[in-house]
């Protein structure tokens, strides 16, 4: 495999498939500015800046080096904190702003913060986007400062926007060298198919290999449980799994689509989904984590399955012999961490009817932290409304059972009821208390969870009836996008995405 490390093309031929970028930087290259804090993608001390050519343009994103296999970065530009400063231009604007704002205290987390801010600086300079408080907070959402020094760090992020220099993406030598190596092959133990046909062939050759996409969950088996992987089959380059397309009345989302890519797509089309996506993990994780991975791992507290349940999504599963089948997500989860996915299958895509996406829907996530945290309770709700009456209802939860789950009996209490029928709402909430029996754990007690679930349904019902209620998001969302209006007829005619 070949890649650019800072300012040099590097070729490696003998690394294990699961050797992380963090270990490589520290152990093989002595670049110890990249720190190990958690080894699970939570703290951001290992943040790495990665450049790639996209349609001829050089763009930079951040990721957690501690859970990223180095071989997944073949053909890319890896930038460690040591390389940001240059002899001819001095400190990078993100570095200089951190110095000027006294943004570093103990210093352990500082390299990660600097690279997250540098990524924001690069992207804002190239797109003309404004660097404001919200964008700074989003950029550093996956970086934890144990000294609680966020105020000067945010000030540094705002101040760096006034500096104009040091754009990595404008350096022609990086573009030309990436063009030479962007199709670089990884090692024999790390397979990167580019089509479904190649994927099927790879799995036939390596039937015991693990599939990996973002690796944000799978790689914890390596870093936390010390499990060694032999052959890994990387799904991130399979073209059919990277698409978001409208097709015959459906929205088809590839299983390899990352959260960040889904954010970009949904920003104007489905702003309530965009809102929720800002609450999933951190920017570094969203740059790597995929929709398919979030569903396939079978976690009862995964954020995306309740949304797919609310929209009655169908899942396409492919076998290694090239055959495929579809299964509704309602039938996909069999028990705790158990799914209908066979050992010789992988998730290819998700299909949702556009008409269902046009229905009134709301998503709410409750967690201890605003970002970079797992749900205590998550509700995904959908209401089909006609002539002031509720038709189909979907109330799907995460964190309330051994699997992502719909509250079927509670849904029935609201079906065919007037949207303003508060008595029906109270019956539904009482039904929910008997229908679901959540557990108590470190994130929340069972009582808290059921009380919160009832309150979230009430919140969705209030919004359905035109009331404006507070909603918390990592993204600044223009109020016009979320305007419900007071007229029921207007609600039915508009797209409540």
From TrEMBL:
Main EC class the enzyme belongs to: oxidoreductase
InterPro entries: 2Fe-2S-bd (IPR002888), 2Fe-2S-bd_dom_sf (IPR036884), 2Fe-2S_ferredoxin-like_sf (IPR036010), 2Fe-2S_ferredoxin-type (IPR001041), 2Fe2S_fd_BS (IPR006058), Ald_Oxase/xanthine_DH-like (IPR016208), Beta-grasp_dom_sf (IPR012675), CO_DH_flav_C (IPR005107)
Keyword Secreted: no
Domain FAD-binding PCMH-type: 183-357
Protein name as it appears in the record: Xanthine dehydrogenase, small subunit
Molecular function in Gene Ontology: 2 iron, 2 sulfur cluster binding; aldehyde oxidase activity; FAD binding; iron ion binding; xanthine dehydrogenase activity
PROSITE patterns: 2FE2S_FER_1, 2FE2S_FER_2, FAD_PCMH
EC number assigned by the record: 1.2.3.1
Keywords linked to the UniProt accession: FAD, Flavoprotein, Iron, Metal-binding, Oxidoreductase
Gene3D superfamilies in alphabetical order: 3.10.20.30, 3.30.465.10, [2Fe-2S]-binding domain, CO dehydrogenase flavoprotein, C-terminal domain, Uridine Diphospho-n-acetylenolpyruvylglucosamine Reductase, domain 2
Organism encoding this protein: Marinomonas posidonica (strain CECT 7376 / NCIMB 14433 / IVIA-Po-181)
Phylogenetic placement of the source organism: Bacteria, Pseudomonadati, Pseudomonadota, Gammaproteobacteria, Oceanospirillales
Record-linked NCBIfam families: xanthine_xdhA (TIGR02963)
């Amino acid at each position: 495999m070949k890649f650019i490390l800072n300012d040099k093309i590097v070729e490696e031929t003998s690394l294990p498939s699961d050797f992380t970028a963090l270990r490589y930087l520290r152990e093989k290259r002595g670049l110890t500015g990249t720190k190990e804090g958690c080894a699970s993608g939570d703290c951001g001390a290992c943040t790495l800046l990665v450049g790639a050519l996209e349609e001829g343009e050089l763009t930079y994103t951040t990721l957690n080096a501690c859970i990223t296999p180095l071989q997944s970065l073949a053909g890319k530009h890896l930038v460690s904190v040591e390389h940001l400063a240059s002899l001819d231009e001095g400190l990078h604007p993100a570095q200089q702003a951190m110095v000027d704002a006294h943004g570093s205290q103990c210093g352990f987390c500082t390299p990660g913060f600097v690279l997250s801010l540098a990524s924001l600086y690069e992207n804002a300079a190239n797109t003309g986007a404004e660097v404001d408080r919200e964008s700074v907070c989003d950029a550093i959402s996956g970086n934890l400062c144990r000294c609680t020094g966020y105020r000067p760090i945010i000030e540094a992020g705002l101040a760096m926007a006034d500096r104009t220099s040091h754009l990595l993406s404008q350096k022609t030598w990086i573009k030309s060298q990436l063009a030479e190596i962007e199709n670089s092959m990884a090692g024999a133990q790390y397979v990167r198919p580019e089509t479904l046909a190649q994927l099927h062939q790879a799995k036939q050759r390596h039937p015991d290999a693990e599939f990996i996409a973002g690796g944000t969950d799978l790689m914890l088996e390596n870093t936390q449980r010390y499990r060694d992987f032999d052959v890994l089959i990387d799904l991130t380059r399979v073209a059919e799994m990277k698409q978001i397309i409208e097709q015959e009345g459906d929205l088809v989302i590839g299983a390899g689509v990352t959260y960040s890519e889904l954010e970009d797509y949904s920003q104007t089309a489905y702003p309530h989904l965009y809102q929720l996506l800002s609450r999933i993990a951190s920017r570094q994780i969203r740059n790597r984590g995929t929709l398919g991975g979030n569903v396939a791992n079978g976690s009862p507290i995964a954020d995306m399955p309740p949304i797919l349940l609310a929209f009655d999504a169908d899942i396409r599963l492919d076998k290694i012999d090239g055959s495929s089948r579809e299964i509704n997500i309602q039938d996909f989860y069999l028990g705790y961490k158990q799914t209908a996915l066979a050992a010789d299958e992988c998730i290819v895509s998700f299909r949702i009817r556009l008409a269902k996406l046009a229905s009134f829907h709301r998503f709410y996530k409750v967690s201890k932290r605003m970002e970079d945290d797992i749900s205590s309770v998550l509700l995904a709700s959908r209401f089909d409304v006609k002539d002031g009456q509720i038709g189909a209802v979907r109330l799907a939860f995460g964190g309330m059972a051994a699997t992502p789950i719909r509250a079927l009996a509670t849904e029935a209490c609201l079906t065919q009821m007037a949207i303003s029928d508060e008595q029906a709402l109270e019956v539904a909430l009482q039904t929910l208390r008997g229908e679901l029996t959540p557990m108590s754990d470190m994130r929340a007690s069972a009582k808290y969870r059921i009380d919160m679930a009832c309150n979230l349904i009430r919140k969705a019902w209030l919004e359905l009836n035109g009331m404006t209620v507070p909603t918390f998001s990592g993204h600044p969302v223009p109020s016009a996008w979320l305007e419900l209006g007071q007229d029921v007829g207007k609600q039915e005619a508009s797209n409540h995405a």
